[in-house]
Design the sequence.
């Protein structure tokens, strides 16, 4: 794990080296203090030598100040290295997630990905900070304290050397059993985050159906599962502490008993006994700290495995190598015997089957069909949100899989079913479509999408702040802003996935008219539920049972397609009933 993490210390390697060096200085200074105290007792107090007391007292003060400086610098350098490592890990994860296809994100789940970028990275940061300070401090203290204790009395130091292997063996055993429990704990955090995410996103639905109590129970179950998983791991960790304290107390009693007799026999000075007791305590305390650090390392290892699972995942959608061709007419879309399955590995049932059609540059092709017929899936294959299972989707005569993803998607404008606006101003949201657009182009796009009037009705106009998800505008207003954002891109292919469902027929007609006037060279693929939205299209594709069952203009389909007729008449009856 350490080897895998080292590359992510880039930019903070100096701090990662200086932190343990500073800790070493701090620790060595602390270990010198008992020797100076012993000198004060044995050479100063017992012999009545005031100069020895003053000399060693000044040395203690100087060493204490040096230790303090080392501790402050160690804390600073360790914090910088740990936080820097965490920042680099999060950045790497975010970049990898951005390269994921829709299928990759579905495989991990958004809640789990959030946990891996936050809680799991935090565990790594805590481990690094502890290793750079506590683990180094404990190791240096243990080694130096053993050497000094042995130089004072090998006999007394031997008691510690006998107990230490038992403590180390106990820590190793605990790590073996606790490691898997930390992995379970992180998965329970995933589950709780998923419940929270779903509840916050669907809060209007929850309140509309008065299901707050159900959601509380669901959260309580997830919260209790996390609590229990945490207790299972932590209680096993805590079981180690009494055993380590028992070993420490036994060693202390043995050293006091035998050391006291050595003082009585004049084999040891009182100051030396005091010093060796201090060093023995330091050794045993260091062993305990190493044990705790190793257990934290075990939890960090479980988190690191989850992080590297994301970083090592190869996106299902591989980037192509070809740039978009330079030609006068662009926007030719072709589907050639396309089949698609959502299941990984191409298993399961077809969502789309034997789809073949061509959309010419500047043509408007509408797609209609029942719920679940695959309309949205079909258009998602063009920008390669998913890749076809069989067949090919071509743009301007070349398979879309050959193009660079950024280049491909940069030529396509999309207005999805779920209209998404980001926190920020209306201006910032519109410029998502084209950051280089001028003020005039942005205003024209808003006018074409029939959004200009309501935007200007706000006191701040285009500088009006949008809350997260655009909750401070209506559904129809949100749709029109999303259409304006897509139009501002001046795309070669414009995909509208049921994007005018929340606007009235008159406004929809004006938006369609702006397509003909200002995007006349753009290929438009239009998905809609209402026949009134598609009847003016150059061609209409009818999907049923995962394939195209009819194609033609509105008038042609009214003569030849029973499926299209059924959709049309069912909507007419609905209009009459509403009337």
Sequence:
């Amino acid at each position: 794990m350490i080897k895998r993490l080292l590359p992510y210390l880039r930019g903070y390697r100096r701090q990662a080296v200086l932190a343990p060096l500073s800790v070493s200085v701090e620790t060595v200074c602390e270990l010198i203090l008992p020797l100076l105290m012993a000198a004060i007792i044995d050479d100063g107090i017992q012999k009545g030598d005031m100069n020895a007391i003053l000399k060693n007292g000044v040395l203690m003060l100087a060493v204490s100040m040096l230790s303090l400086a080392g501790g402050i610098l160690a804390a600073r350098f360790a914090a910088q290295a740990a936080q820097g490592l965490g920042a680099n890990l999060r950045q790497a994860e975010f970049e990898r997630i951005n390269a994921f296809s829709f299928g990759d994100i579905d495989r991990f789940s958004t809640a789990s990905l959030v946990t891996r970028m936050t809680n799991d990275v935090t565990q790594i940061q805590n481990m690094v900070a502890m290793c750079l300070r506590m683990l180094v401090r404990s190791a240096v203290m243990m080694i130096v304290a053993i050497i000094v204790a042995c130089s004072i009395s090998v006999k007394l130091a031997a008691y510690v050397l006998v107990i230490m292997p038992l403590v180390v063996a106990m820590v190793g055993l605990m790590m073996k059993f606790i490691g898997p429990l930390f992995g379970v704990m992180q998965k329970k955090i995933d589950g709780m985050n998923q419940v929270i995410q779903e509840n916050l996103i669907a809060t209007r639905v929850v309140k509309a159906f008065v299901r707050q109590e159900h959601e509380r129970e669901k959260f309580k179950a997830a919260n209790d599962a996390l609590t229990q998983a945490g207790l299972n791991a932590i209680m096993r960790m805590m079981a180690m502490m009494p055993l380590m304290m028992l070993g420490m107390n036994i060693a202390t009693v043995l050293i006091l008993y035998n050391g006291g007799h050595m003082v009585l026999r004049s084999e040891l000075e009182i100051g030396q006994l005091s010093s060796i007791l201090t060093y023995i305590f330091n050794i045993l305390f260091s062993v305990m700290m190493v044990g705790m650090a190793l257990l934290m390392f075990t939890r960090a290892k479980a988190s690191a495995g989850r992080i590297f699972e994301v970083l090592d995942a190869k996106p299902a959608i591989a980037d192509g190598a070809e740039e978009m061709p330079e030609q006068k007419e662009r926007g030719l879309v072709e589907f050639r015997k396309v089949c698609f399955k959502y299941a990984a590995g191409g298993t399961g049932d077809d969502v789309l089957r034997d789809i073949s059609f061509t959309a010419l540059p500047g043509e408007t092709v509408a797609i209609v069909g029942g719920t679940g017929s695959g309309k949205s899936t079909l258009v998602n294959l063009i920008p390669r949100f998913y890749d076809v299972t069989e067949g090919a989707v071509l743009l301007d005569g070349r398979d879309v899989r050959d193009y660079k993803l950024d280049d491909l998607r940069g030529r396509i404008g999309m207005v999805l079913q779920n209209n998404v606006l980001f926190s920020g101003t209306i201006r910032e949201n519109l410029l998502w479509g084209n950051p280089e657009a001028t003020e005039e182009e942005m205003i024209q796009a808003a006018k074409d999408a029939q959004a200009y009037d309501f935007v200007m009705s706000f006191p701040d106009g285009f500088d009006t702040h949008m809350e997260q998800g655009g909750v401070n505008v209506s559904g129809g207003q949100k749709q029109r802003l999303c259409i304006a954002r897509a139009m501002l891109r001046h795309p070669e292919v414009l995909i509208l996935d049921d994007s005018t469902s929340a606007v009235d027929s008159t406004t929809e007609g004006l938006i369609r008219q702006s397509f003909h006037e200002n995007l006349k060279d753009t290929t438009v693929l239009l998905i809609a539920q209402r026949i009134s939205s598609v009847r003016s299209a150059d061609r209409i594709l009818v999907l049923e049972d995962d394939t195209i069952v009819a194609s033609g203009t509105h008038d042609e389909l009214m003569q030849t397609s029973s499926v299209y007729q059924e959709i049309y008449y069912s909507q007419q009856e609905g209009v009459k009933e509403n009337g």
